[in-house]
Each structure stands twice: as C-alpha cells, then as structure tokens.
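input
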Amino acid sequence: MPTLLLKNADLLVTMDGARRRIAGGGLFVRDNIIEQVGPTAELPASADRIIDARGMAILPGLVNTHHHLYQTLTRCLAQDDGLFGWLRTLYPIWARMNGEAVYVSAKVGLAELLLSGCTTSSDHLYLYPNGSRIDDEIRAAQELGIRFHATRGSMSLGESQGGLPPDSVVEGEDAILADCRRAIETFHQAERYGMVRVALAPCSPFSVTADLMRESAALARSYGVRLHTHLAETLDEEQFCLETFGHRPVAYVESLGWTGDDVWHAHCVHMSDAEISLFARTGTGVAHCPSSNMRLASGIAPVVAWRQSGVPVGLGVDGSASNDSSHMLAEARQAMLLQRVGGRVAGGVARPDPTIMGAQQALELATLGGAAVLGRDDIGALAPGMAADFIGYRLERLDFAGALHDPLAALVFCTPVNVDLSVVNGRVRVQEGQIVDIELLPLIQRHNAISRAMIRDERLPA
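output
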C-alpha cells in the first residue's frame, strides 16, 4: 500500500474535534487514507513520497456544495438583472449547448475550483440540450482527479405549462426518471471514500411539477442517494409559490417530502424562524452562496441563525454566471463579511456586527460544513481515518505581508489566493501552484471558442 508523508508545515489546521492547529505539523497517509496527524517529530520518518511543507499552511480540502459548471460559458451576462430576468436572458443561450460544451465547461470550472483549494465539488446540471448528459461532466471530474458529487438535475415545467423556462429546455418526466436511474446505477459510489456520487436534483419549484418532486424523492430514497434543489432564493420565488401552490417555498417542499437528513437546498435566503427550526429538527442542509446572492440582489441568508439552530450549512460558489468566479476561499471570505453586514436581529431590526463570524467559522463552513451537507464523514477534517484530501498555501507571499502573526486569519481576511499544493485521495493534483498533468491554455481556448459561438448563436466549433 503506497504511503505519503507531509512534514514541517508552519501551521497544520486539522478541523478535528478539538480544532487543533499544529505548528510544525504533518500527516502520514497509507493507501490514500490519513493514518496519523501531529507534530512532525511524532510521525514516521519515511514514506514512498515525502512532501516538505515548510513555509506553508495546510488545511483540509475545501468542499463546494452547489455549482452550475456549464455557466462558465456565460459569465458577465445579464449584469443588472435579478434571478428571474437573469434566467430568461440565459435560458435560450444555454439551450445551444451540446455534450462537448458541458464537458469543456465542467473541466474549466473544476480546474478553477481545484486551484482555489476545493477538493470535493458538487454540481447541479439541470438542462440537457442537444444530446448532452451528466456523463460529460463526470468525465471531466475524473480526468482532473477531483472528488465529485454530480446531481442529476431536471426541468419539466415549461412556459406553456406555467413554468419559467422555455419549452425548448425541458424534458419529459418519464425520460428524466429513467436517466436518473441510469446515472445512479452507472456512477454512484456509495462506499466510504467514493470519488463520484450521484444525487437527484429537480431544478426548482418554478421549473418542475409537484409530481416530479415526489417521484424524484421516492426514487432517490429507493437507491439511498441524496436530494438537492434551489429553494427560497428570492422574493419573486416566494410570490410564485404563494400564487401557484398556495404555500411559501419551504412549506411547499415539506409537503412533497423534501426535508430530512438526505436533503440539501441551495440558497434559502428567505426563511422564517419556524422554517429554520424545521430544517434543524429534520437535519435538512443548506448550501450558502453569498456571492451569487449579492450578484443577483437576492438578500442576505440567515447563516448565523442556521448554525445556532443546528442546521447543516456548507458553502457553494453557485453558477459561474451568477458569481462569475469559482473560488472557494473567496466564497469563505464573502460569507464572513456578508454576515457581519447583515448582523444580528434585535427588536425586529438587523444591526451590523463585526463579531458575528470570524475566519475559523468561515473555514468551518468550507470544510466540515460542506462535508455534513453532502452527507460525508470521510472528508472535511485532517484526522486518522479521513480521506487524504488536503491543501497547502505558501505564507511568504505579498498577499499575506503583515498578517503572518495569524496565518489562518490571513487566508480569509486577505486577498483570496490559489493553492500551491492540493492532494486529493492521496494523489498530488496541484504542485507549485500548477495542476498536474493538465495543459490549461488549450482547454481555455477551446472553452472560449464554444462560449463565443453560443453567445452569438453560431454553430458550435467541431
């Protein structure tokens, strides 16, 4: 069984039960599983591969709980729209995608995430035009060597039936459910340390029928896989649900069986205290996407109230057309700063509060929180028995000058930087700041050619 030793880290942040921070720390890996963590002097002296992390801060790999990778193709469009207007602008462009577009955009987005410190990412792919399949993005994840939760999304409620998306991008519900079964049976790795997992993810209450929500939940639970959707993102959505279903969004999905410890929802910006209590009581998780919520002016999610109530909370960069970035460390920073502005509610008034979230709490959202939301007990911390997913940042850099009295805080308060080292499942995927075995320039050029053709409504390049 291959072994790996990382030693001499200036700071090793474990995120273990004691939240240990170990100066001069390291870890020993056997067969892609962490066997020992502690001061370097207490670890084995030799291994098949040795990484000297002197001058670095080492953390657990970051976990992204919500994304739309295909949206790397359409960044910086609909710049001044809210959610519904933004979607109406972009749906016709996305309808021009094919399988190659899905594959290339996924590889670009996942490469960006990997360089930002992400070692596990979910993705919500909910439209499949022109023969594209979820297989296309799973192939990209496997080639990059990143841990991946593919959520087989769907839209079935087109404009002609009272939904938001145009009819050209919706699918028949029988076909959706059949492909969901195929995706689970083909790709889902339920075992501990699995690199690919599949979840079922009807897009949103305004793009699928109640029947599809119920059938998707039943199908997912018959296979033991998780459920995911967008929820309570905007006040427009709340009004749509009240007018169409007679319920607020949370009450509507609760009536369909969409709460429980096998469910996580994206956004949940607009929730009452009673709805937060429901999520806490049922173990329903949330993917918090602060940059997207600011970009679309959706609001400030009640992250502190979720955490205090016991709701599982992780971070999501969300789609690259509503964030225009895929940087997990930047997302942790935004989460911290936005909560401070949102503040605490007292007497019905929200007052900004700089003590409401710090760097440690923001990084917990990006590691332990994300692992909990995805239902994993094998990632998110550096401890014996955990997957060998870890990242490293060199500390002697311009971005952190003057901040090295607190290296952990520097990672969140200072300019977000890319990793110098990333190890996923015991394999080095980023070394000296470069992704191993991937030529990025040809990939970027291919991606941009597809993007231009889609936006201009031209034939996609062969």
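quick obs: The CA atoms of residues 16 and 60 lie 10 Å apart.
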